[in-house]
Amino acid sequence: MPRPMVWSSDEIVTVTSFMTLRRYPDLMRDSMRRVSTSMSFPEAPTGVYPEDNDTFNRLHEELVAAAEVLDGIDPAVTVFGSARLKEQEPEFEVAREIALGLARAGVPVITGGGPGIMEAANRGAKEGGGVSVGLKIALPREQHENPYLDRRAHFRYFMSRKFMLTRYSYGFVVFPGGFGTLDELFELLVLYNTDRAERRPIVLVGKAFWQDLLTWMMDFQGGREFIDPEDLGELTVVDSADEALAVLLNPDRRGALDVQVSESHIVDASDALDREKTP
After folding, report:
1. Which residues, other chains included, contact 236 with Cβ-Cβ below 8 Å and sequence gap of 6+?
2. How far lies 16's CA from each of 33, 58, 131, in Å?
3. pLDDT attached to residue 261
4. Which residues of the chain have pLDDT under 50?
5. Euclidean distance between CA atoms 146 and 134, whole angstroms
6. For residue 33, what pLDDT is reported?
7. Contact 108, 130 (CB under 8 A)
8. Beta strands across the sheet bearing 151-155
9. How many angstroms separate the CA atoms of 249 and 251, rounded?
10. Which pLDDT value is given to residue 114?
11. What is the pLDDT of residue 43?
12. Domains with residue ranges and CATH for the chain
């Protein structure tokens, strides 16, 4: 481990003395030379620190364990969104309906496995008879697992969890959320922008929530040519489950990604919802 920096008590340069030394450059150079010779610097590392090895091993274990959970799963759709969203809020029902339609189309649904939007999506997948997956992470808050999971994996690290949340999915739904939700969205955009992943449909749910952010990105980032319009990938902004399912269950989009899904499994979005609403 690096040793802490050590200063001798009679050679500590305070803010006041530093301001004084600025007036006398020769004195300042001499003083700083004396200080530099009295400081102790950490030795250059000769290898990987033991605690880093432990981290690397845990990351590997998490990835392998999650891959075993997701082994054999059909191409899925991952749903992101706030864990704090309540059941009585309209987005909860939209998330449930989207997942219900996906499940009835034979598409597995993957979430972070927690409450809020994640619970709504896993519940819809479960009610639709589909595969409901939760990839959980330990957090100070909102960490309880929702009760609608068929498959589950647990993570300590965000980096491994984010990789697995996107690795098995051909499309993504992003609901309103906080820093974690934005992190997941921008991770996808970075991967597309740098050609590290093929472009897959991203559906943003909630026009009122997303519009200002998208406008800012195009006006300020795009206005200064930090990004190009195509950098936003295949973003679609919707308000309803019907609109989202029309994008996600589009046979052309799925076929373009070389996803082998039988045409018999692709149903019209409105049909999926109509069946759910029929007594």
Report:
1. 201, 202, 203, 204, 243, 247
2. 18, 48, 67
3. 35
4. 1-22, 28, 32, 35-37, 41, 255-279
5. 8
6. 52
7. yes
8. 151-155, 132-137, 109-111, 76-80, 169-174, 202-205, 235-238
9. 6
10. 94
11. 59
12. 52-277 (3.40.50.450)
Burial of 95 (0-12, 13-18, 19+ CB in 10 A): buried
Among positive and negative, which fits the CA dihedral 92, 69, 75, 198?
A: positive
Q: Which two tokens stand for residue 275?
A: 């069946």
Per-residue buried b or exposed e for 242-275, using 16+ beta carbons within 10 Å of the residue's own CB: bbbbbbbbeeebbeeeebebeeeeebebeebbee
- Position 229 scores a pLDDT of 73
pTM, whole model, 2 decimals? 0.74
Give the per-residue pLDDT at 2. 43
* Helices assigned H by DSSP within the chain: 15-21, 25-38, 50-70, 90-104, 117-127, 158-167, 179-193, 207-216, 241-248, 251-256, 269-277
